[in-house]
Write a structure and sequence with these properties.
This protein is of the alpha/beta class. The protein has a single domain (3-186), classed as Rossmann fold. The chain is built from four helices and eleven strands, in the order H-H-E-H-E-E-E-E-E-E-E-H-E-E-E. The protein has helices at 3-15, 19-34, 59-67, 139-146; strands spanning 43-45, 71-78, 83-88, 95-97, 103-105, 118-121, 125-126, 132-133, 152-156, 177-179, 184-186. The strands form three sheets. It has a seven-stranded mixed sheet with strand order 3-2-1-6-9-10-11. Strand 1 (43-45), helix 3 and strand 2 (71-78) form a beta-alpha-beta unit. The longest helix is centred in the N-terminal third of the chain and has 16 residues, at 19-34. The protein is globular, with a radius of gyration of 15 Å. It starts with a helix and ends with a strand. Substrate binds at residues 50, 55.
Amino acid sequence: MDKHQLRTKYKEKRKVLKNAELEDLSIEITNQALRSPIWDHATYHLFLPIERQHEIDTSFLLTVLQGKDKEVIISRSDFNNGSMKHFLLTDNTVMKTNSYGIPEPQSGIEIAPAAIEVVFVPLLAYDRFGNRVGYGKGFYDRFLKECNPDTLKIGLSFFPPEDKINDVNQDDIALDMCITPEGVYDFRN
């Protein structure tokens, strides 16, 4: 399938999930993450969910990160130029939900992408090779290009991978891993 078909398919698959299912699946993803060998880093970038898109509730993962004393980085998107700025999440971080439903920091200590060691990447779909489909604006592909080559890129998904995304292009940045409620896919091997 191509990206357009996959976006449509997975938006529909997520739309039918009830709130209790979303919560249970999000907790299972967090439990799978806890069992994964990803915790020997200091700085973790985490996306905050767009609730109306039935995205994974990353608040459980945020609690784990904070409990492990990790530095948590969150982003603010600029829809005029397609860029993201990244900020250290602190007790003083003022959050506001933008018009797209994305909770974002309003200000704070800005962190360069090169300083981020692990990025949890939002997605709609992904394939057995680690290629992902997002919402189509390219924010994360541009951001991941600014990270170090050894930054660990981890997708989070309610669903298993597709066999193949047919229209992957040279600007797409593949995942290293994807965590689902059932287990972890490692694409580095």
